[in-house]
């Protein structure tokens, strides 16, 4: 059994920033995420996009924002468990809580902070591609330069598919964008950009098979109108059909759930003792679902939790500028 003061469920932006704050409050912290990497939606859905509304960072690439948050979180010396979903929560007679993951890891903690965002999210199925077991399927897109010399096939008609196609058309040997329908759901300006790029666009078309031994070499694409089948060169396939999000096991935890969000008070308490929430997953009157709001909620939640765990401590944590113990590794004297 793992023992800690605070269990943070979800290693997205809100969870990573909450981890930093837990360190500032000298709490032993464990972080669990069902994905196999930290960074939540930012790392999984738009690592290469620039974000312009994080205070103090006029323009920051998604992956760089997550790298900074992860580095900041390390000052708390957290135990981070990836690839496991928190599934059950049991109150203990002394007020503490035990949370168990889907693979049976049990975590005994003083309090729980749920920073689960839109919940567990899994890519929409794409049967012909999902069945391929070799390399070359990229569910997270890396930097454009990684695709130099590759024949890239992107599947989807939304903003991510169209933006990646435009971006990679500048570096890849070839880019083919395959969409099942005639019309794209991406912004009109993005569709106009991809049409002007070197990308080949195939609409009303779908991949029916992936060919290659070890790695992807070609895809067979069926044109819905003519029923003809074309073999298209491909060394990389990027499925970009979006994700299916679900709160999963959290819905059975006796929390007040509205739609896909957990209702919280101004201290981020959920109403269930010792269980708090922050970030995209919270709801209250006037809620704005942005990262900067999630960062503030994370700080509010952790400071309130610190007082619950150690009655008599000040709610205000002090200023980080005066606390040497919260310095990131390698900074300061
Ligand atoms: C394309 C796109 C562009 C965006 N651009 C911006 C922008 O410019 N500015 C902005 O402020 N916001 C933007 N957003 C929104 C922003 O990404 C979210 O507000 C932010 O990611 C929310 O952070 P979070 O930590 O609350 O949740 P998430 O990022 O969703 O992270 C939650 C994590 O919790 C994990 N999790 C959930 N349930 C469990 C469980 N039971 N057990 C274990 N782990 C669990 C999930 O796997 C996930 O990793 C954008 C979103 C998208 C999709």
Automatic annotation (TrEMBL):
Residues 5-293 form the FAD/NAD(P)-binding domain. InterPro entries: FAD/NAD-bd_sf, FAD/NAD-binding_dom, Fd--NADP_Rdtase_type_2, Ferredoxin-NADP_redctase_2. Its EC number is 1.18.1.2. The keyword Lipid biosynthesis does not apply. GO terms for molecular function: ferredoxin-NADP+ reductase activity; flavin adenine dinucleotide binding; NADP binding; thioredoxin-disulfide reductase (NADPH) activity. FAD binds at residues 33, 41, 46, 121, 280, 321. Its cofactor is FAD. Binds 1 FAD per subunit. It catalyses: 2 reduced [2Fe-2S]-[ferredoxin] + NADP(+) + H(+) = 2 oxidized [2Fe-2S]-[ferredoxin] + NADPH; [thioredoxin]-dithiol + NADP(+) = [thioredoxin]-disulfide + NADPH + H(+). Keywords: FAD, Flavoprotein, NADP, Oxidoreductase. SUPFAM superfamilies: FAD/NAD(P)-binding domain. Belongs to the ferredoxin--NADP reductase type 2 family. Homodimer. This is Ferredoxin--NADP reductase.
């Amino acid at each position: 059994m793992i023992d800690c003061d605070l269990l943070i469920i979800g290693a997205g932006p809100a969870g990573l920033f909450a981890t930093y704050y837990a360190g500032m409050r000298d709490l032993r912290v464990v972080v669990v995420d069902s994905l196999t990497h930290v960074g939540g939606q930012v790392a999984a859905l738009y690592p290469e996009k620039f974000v312009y509304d994080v205070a103090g960072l006029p323009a920051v690439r998604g992956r760089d924002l997550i790298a900074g948050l992860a580095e900041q979180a390390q000052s708390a010396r957290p135990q981070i468990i990836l690839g496991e979903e928190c599934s059950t929560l049991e109150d203990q007679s002394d007020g503490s809580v035990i949370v168990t993951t889907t693979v049976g890891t049990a975590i005994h903690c003083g309090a729980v902070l749920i920073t689960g965002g839109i919940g567990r999210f899994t890519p929409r199925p794409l049967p012909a591609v999902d069945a391929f077991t070799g390399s070359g399927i990229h569910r997270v897109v890396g930097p454009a330069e990684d695709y130099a010399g590759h024949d890239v096939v992107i599947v989807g008609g939304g903003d991510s598919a169209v933006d990646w196609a435009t971006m990679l058309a500048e570096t890849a040997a070839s880019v083919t964008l395959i969409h099942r329908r005639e019309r794209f759901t991406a912004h009109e300006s993005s569709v106009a950009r991809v049409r002007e790029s070197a990308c080949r666009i195939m609409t009303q078309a779908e991949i029916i098979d992936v060919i290659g031994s070890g790695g992807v070499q070609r895809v067979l694409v069926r044109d819905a109108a003519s029923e003809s089948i074309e073999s298209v060169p491909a060394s990389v396939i990027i499925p970009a059909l979006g994700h299916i999000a679900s709160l999963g096991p959290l819905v059975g935890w006796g929390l007040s759930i509205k739609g896909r969000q957990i209702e919280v008070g101004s201290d981020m308490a959920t109403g269930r003792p010792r269980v708090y929430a922050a970030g995209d997953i919270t709801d209250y009157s006037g809620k704005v679902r942005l990262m900067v709001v999630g960062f503030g909620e994370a700080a509010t939640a952790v400071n309130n939790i610190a007082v619950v765990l150690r009655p008599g401590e000040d709610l205000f944590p002090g200023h980080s500028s005066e606390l040497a113990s919260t310095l990131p590794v390698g900074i300061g004297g």
